Amino acid sequence: MAGKIEIMETVLRDAHQCLVATRMRTEDMLPIAAQLDDIGYWSLETWGGATFDATLRFLKEDPWERLRKLRAAMPKTRFQMLLRGQNVVGYRNYPDDIVQAFVARAASNGIDVFRIFDAMNDIRNMQTAIEAALKTGKLVEGTVCYTISPVHSPDYFLRIAEKLADMGVQIICLKDMAGMLAPYAAYEIIKKIKSRISLPLHLHSHCTAGLSPMNYMMAIEAGADILDTAIAPFSQGASQAATEQMVAALKDTPHDTGLDLAKLGKIADYFYGVRKNYAEFESAVNNQIKTDVLISQIPGGMLSNLVAQLRQQKAEDKLDAVLAEMPQVRKDLGYPPLVTPTSQIVGSQAALNVMTGKRYSVVAMETRNYVMGLYGEPPGQVSEEMKSKVLGKKDPITCRPADLLKPGLEQARKDAGSLARSEEDVLTYALFPEIAKDYFLARDGQPAAKM
Q1: Pick from 9, 14, 4: nearest CA to 243
Q2: pLDDT digits 0-9 by tens, 247-281
Q3: pTM for the full model?
Q4: What is the largest CA-CA distance in the chain?
Q5: Residue 201's closest CA among 186, 223, 178?
Q6: Among the listed residues 450, 449, 405, 448, the one whose alpha carbon sits nearest the alpha carbon of residue 430
Q7: Distance of CA 164 to the CA centre of its chain
Q8: CA-wise closest residue to 82 among 165, 180, 13
Q9: Residue 102 confidence (pLDDT)
Q10: Rounded CA gap, 228 and 205, in Å?
Q11: H/E/C letters for each residue in the chain?
């Protein structure tokens, strides 16, 4: 069994992504920064995932500037980010030169730990990012995305972990992004991985089905070393187990985290106030125990955004129908784990199927690209009906998807032109050109570009 259990706090990234649609502003993070820095977390998740996009798109903030401000305010604590492999912090594959440059700049701006995953568990889509992160000298977590399907098993997850260990990562992360992991499954998988791989194991589990705290206790028995938790005001529901909950459960045991509950309580008091600022992004769905996630498999971070999107279209009443449609779409696509971008692909196609009233009468471009193999190799077989509808007589690609991409950094530099003030601006433009251009123009006091 593991000894002392370390904690990664998610409140500045995944927790608010899951519960208030990634809308927390930097101005609500900085006042509590010194107290967070004083806790002694193993790491603090501050960046990556949907925060990069949301910061630009909705908050009109510079994500790089957020990172620098947080880093200056919290010099003692490791900063961790979520990196989508070849997708970086976007929703498609980017050329290798953009991936490499992004990782290098993220490290120089303050990231200490890179959690790198691929939505398909396709190692080829993680290789460039892992190599780039290792080159910076920072810590790298090779990530196994957990899911349930006829083609996923404990041995499958072990094989992915072994491939990641062979690539030189320093930590293995088991990522239960949809909250589907159950306690005895957690024990079996982690025990199997720890028996074969001597690296620390970091478990990420959401409370969507109410199982996360139990998963964590069984994971500890199996040898897990680090757990992801969220301070109580941003915990539970589609988020993670509460930090205070796990600290209290392990107090005065061989697994004592060493964290101070009184200090955590003061931080919680602050964030209870902060959460009120984002009431418009709240949804009862995000805060309930929803065991139907075991059917829909939708991850917490997407659930809050799906609700927000349906609400914008005045179609929130269609949520249950969309969730019910997702398992069929996922089966047709060969059972991909549902995490960005595959969760968006499956969710968007399910929504189209529901809205049109006829399955696949409209097939999204992202769905077509998935079937073509442009997101990587599906874990299972794509249905013949889907392949026939999308590919016709074409064959899907078999190479690493990014091998088809030309270098893109210099072109982004040229296209951004004088709007880019820094190398970070060039990378922002390379990842999200339209959104970046509007942001840069607004920053310079100019009207937004016409579409």
Answers
A1: 9
A2: 999 999 999 999 999 999 999 999 999 999 999 99
A3: 0.92
A4: 64
A5: 223
A6: 405
A7: 18
A8: 13
A9: 98
A10: 7
A11: CCCCCEEEECCCCHHHHHHCCCCCCHHHHHHHHHHHHCCCCCEEEEEECCHHHHHHHCCCCCHHHHHHHHHHHCCCCCEEEEECHHHCCCCCCCCHHHHHHHHHHHHHHCCCEEEECCCCCCHHHCHHHHHHHHHCCCEEEEEEECCCCCCCCHHHHHHHHHHHHHCCCCEEEEEECCCCCCHHHHHHHHHHHHHHCCCCEEEEEECCCCCHHHHHHHHHHHCCCEEEEECHHHCCCCCECEHHHHHHHHCCCCCCCCCCHHHHHHHHHHHHHHHHCCHHHCCHHHHCCCCCHHHHCCCHHHHHHHHHHHHHCCCHHHHHHHHHHHHHHHHHCCCCCCCCCHHHHHHHHHHHHHHHCCCCCCCCHHHHHHHHCCCCCCCCCCCHHHHHHHHCCCCCCCCCHHHHCCCCHHHHHHHHHHHCCCHHHHHHHHHCHHHHHHHHHHHCCCCCCCC
- Per-residue pLDDT band for 451 (boundaries 50, 70, 90) equals very low
CB 358 within 8 A of CB 350: no
Q: Yes or no: say if 14 and 297 are a contact pair by the CB < 8 Å rule.
A: no
Phi, psi of 75 (to 5 degrees): -75, -15
Over the stretch 299-351, which tens digit does the pLDDT of each residue have?
A: 655 666 677 778 877 888 888 898 889 899 999 999 999 888 898 899 889 98
pLDDT score at 450: 59
Between the CA of residue 260 and those of 247, 250, 265, 444, what are the distances in Å?
8, 12, 9, 45
Rg for the chain, CA atoms, rounded = 21
